[in-house]
Every structure is written in structure tokens, then in C-alpha cells.
Amino acid sequence: MKKLMQHFRILRDDHRAPLMRACALLMMAALLYLLWPSAEIACLAMESALR
To answer: Of residues 12 and 50, which shows the higher confidence score?
Structure first.
């Protein structure tokens, strides 16, 4: 029974890692999407300040 539980724990951890990686990528993409306009405005402001 103990070996069976260890096997299930290993399977669950193996399935959790790709899911966590996918969630992290989605969160990073969402942050990039939300922050992109402000980053673009900041770049334009820097360009106009340098001119």
C-alpha cells in the first residue's frame, strides 16, 4: 500500500510541474499584455526626451 501511495505521489508531482509551468507562462503573457502599452509610452517618452 505504501509503495502504491508513493507511485501516486510521483505521478501527481509529474503532472503538476507542466501545469505550473503553463500557468506561469500564461501569467507572464498576461502581464506583458497589460504592461505593453505603458512600456511603449515609456519608450516614446524616452525617445522624445533624447531628441
So the answer is: 50
Q: Which candidate, 14, 44, 37, places its Cα nearest to that of 6?
A: 14
Give per-residue pLDDT as tens, 19-42.
888 889 999 988 888 888 887 888
Which ranges of the chain would DSSP assign to H, the alpha helix? 2-50
Rounded distance between C-alpha atoms, residue 22 and residue 15, angstroms: 11
The structure's pTM equals: 0.48
Flag whether 47 is in a domain.
yes
Q: What is the span of the domain harbouring residue 36?
A: 25-51
Number of domains in the chain: 1
17 domain residue, yes or no: no
